[in-house]
Amino acid sequence: MDVSDHPAGHAGHGSAPARELRNVGICAHIDAGKTTLTERVLHLCGREPRVGRVDEGTSVMDWMAEERERGITITAAAARVRWAECEINLVDTPGHVDFTVEVERCMRVLDGAIVVVDATRGVEPQTETVWRQVERRGLPALAFVNKCERPGADVLACAASIGEKLGVRPLVVAYPIGGGDEDVPLSGVVDLVRGVAQRVEPGGQRVQVPIPEAIEDEVGVLRAELVDALADLDDEVFGVVCAGGEPTVGQLTAALRAATRERRVVPLFCGAALRGHGVPLLLDGIANLLPSPQDRPAPELFDARSGKVLPPLPSEVAGVDDPLLLVFKVHSQQRRGERLDLAVARIYRGAVRPGMKLWNGRSGRLEEVGAVLRIHADAVDELEYAGPGDVVALRGLVSTGCGDTLASEGALHRLEPPRTPNAVVAVLLEPSRDEEREALGAALQRLVREDPSLRAQEDPGTGQWGLEGMGELHLEVALARLKAEFQIEPRVGAPQVAQLESVRGTHSGSGEVDRSLGGERVDAVVGLRLEPVETWAAPVEVGAEGPGGHASGEVLAAVTSALVAEAATAGPLAGHPLCGVRIVIVQANSSTEHAVDAAWGQAAVAALRAALRSAAAAGGVEPLEPWMSFVVDAPADVAGGVIGDLNSRHAVMEEVQSTGTMGRQITGIAPLRELIGYSTSLRSLSKGRATFSLRPAGFRPSVGA
């Protein structure tokens, strides 16, 4: 997209110094207010003249038609704002369980996180999921308790919920003035570090106000608790407190900054993103408490050939001739009838300029950068260069996809690519007209390139395409994009749950092939043993145990490579991928001394398939299906019917507890196939008064099928 195509676009020179950058993701359960918070930030920082509304379909960050129609975030969107002395790359991530992989890809390249919690609901299931992603990446985090203007809002209860469910130590650094009661509207927040109160005027100005007498005592207690907590964490604050003094704002901020960056605490802010209260204080927290790229540890490097871990990157910043980037998102934009691909990347070392050539080790190609772009939702600013620590989009890359490392020519190292879990739901597609067959295949491949958690494969026998994804909504969005962006509306089958195969106990099998290929006799014998590993849905592991015959290292490598590919695509029981299995090769040989060539490879693969079938025939392979953890909130008068319906779906109940005066919260696990279309059934059972949420609970043996 040219900068002239969007009012937000303007030419830029380049990146801010890495010490002034903050790369921050906003994440939470669906409907907690992530996008509204981002929209308020854009307005307060002067990036947008008005605050976009999700319910009105006017939000800048939810720019896709599907997002505005459904009122949810589907794809992560980035924006750049300036606050105080910091440049902030802000990423608004999805909150729906079907798009958890999108969140994971973003967390891989960020330096900090903002976890948003609904003040009336506390920590919800998807909040726990995204928090595990934050922890996996070791990201310092802040919490923002949103919607404090609503009846029933309770910041301290949310703090307790964060501590209990997320297993962290929350420190309350802001407290609402009013809110939580229809008779007492939210009018501002108290900054407990400074001991002052502030509100946000309708125009966005921050104004200091007196602390109301009604909450003076409570604020005093909370501030004393904050000072005591920081005294436990910081020697300087401890010394001042022991001497009977009052720590300065600078001392408290420094102690809070160190504890946050070391991930010993999670500072808890609060407010109402829709009205702006508390958001300026949160921005202060991003600038003062969260780390810059320079403050974060260097990422692990891997040998591009062996996959072994290499020494970390040097701490000093390398020059422009030694770049290192990780592409974590591929994004398409339509412009004047032409579709342009943008590769969104984090720069870990060096700098990037238009015209520079970058080496993609996976594809083995040099890619020329057509343009370096600053992203603002679906708008861009062109840059002359971008430096270390920044997140930018690159235009003109042809063979680069999600997870690829870009570096100087011939580089033999790579960064860890994002991991994509197994798909859980699939549908069959076929073109409505024969002339659309080629276009459908091309469109599906483009969708898969943008979103690796989608999988598409054509069946040559039937001409149908199988499309797999992370849930019903995930596939619905993909199909809607086919229609809206590619003008293709294929015939679609009913959703089917994707299955895996695993093994019970240890079983052996062998396969032998003896055939004539090209006038030459070729034979192969493969023996293997299947062993279970502890975790279902773990990747297939392959090992070797003294193969006999004429098996050389090359022979064994060829069989191992074929084995991984075969097991990952078609298990021996019903053709579903194998998982949670260790496959030990005990024999891989031929009776002749011919070299490892294509003919021998075909024979080895055929023998391998026979060996897998032989092991399966011993009764050791079983089907697995995805299960989901559910949380259903229902009025007490319909809870019995909801529980009965869940029991009929083979659900395993974990807990039923009272919520408020007239509510019940039901938690448990159930097979995903039993929950397809569940929202419609629940709406009917409760007359629209119940809600539910899901999160993956792994793969388990099939029941009741």
The strand order across the widest sheet is 17-16-21-14-15-20-18-19
Q: What is the CATH-assigned architecture of the largest domain?
A: 3-Layer(aba) Sandwich
> What is the third-level CATH name, the topology of the largest domain?
Rossmann fold
Number of helices: 16
Overall domain count: 5
Q: Count all strands and give the number.
A: 36
Percent strand = 25-35%
Q: Kindly, what is the distance between the CA atoms of the first and last residues, rounded to a whole number of angstroms?
A: 50 Å
The oligomeric status of these chains comes to: single chain
Unreliable runs, pLDDT <50, ≥5 residues?
A: 1-12, 315-320
Principal-axes geometry comes out as globular
Mean pLDDT value: 81
The radius of gyration computed from the alpha-carbon positions, rounded to a whole number of angstroms, is 28 Å
Let me know the CATH homologous superfamily of the largest domain.
Answer: P-loop containing nucleotide triphosphate hydrolases
Computed structural class: alpha+beta
Percent of residues in helices: 25-40%
Q: Mind describing the biggest β-sheet?
A: 8 strands, antiparallel
Structure description:
The chain has an 8-stranded antiparallel β-sheet, with no helix packed on it. Strands 2-3-1-4-5-11-6 form a 7-stranded mixed β-sheet, with helices on both faces. Strands 23, 24, 25, 26 and 27 form a 5-stranded antiparallel β-sheet that branches. The protein contains 16 helices and 36 strands. Mean pLDDT is about 80; it is low at about 1-10 and about 315-320. The two termini are about 50 Å apart. It folds into 5 domains: about 20-210 and about 265-295, P-loop containing nucleotide triphosphate hydrolases (Rossmann fold), CATH 3.40.50.300; about 300-415, Elongation Factor Tu (Ef-tu), domain 3; about 425-500, Alpha-Beta Plaits; about 500-620, Ribosomal Protein S5, domain 2 (2-Layer Sandwich); about 625-700, Alpha-Beta Plaits (2-Layer Sandwich). A hairpin with a 6-residue loop joins strand 24 and strand 25 (about 465-470). With about 700 residues, it is an alpha+beta fold.
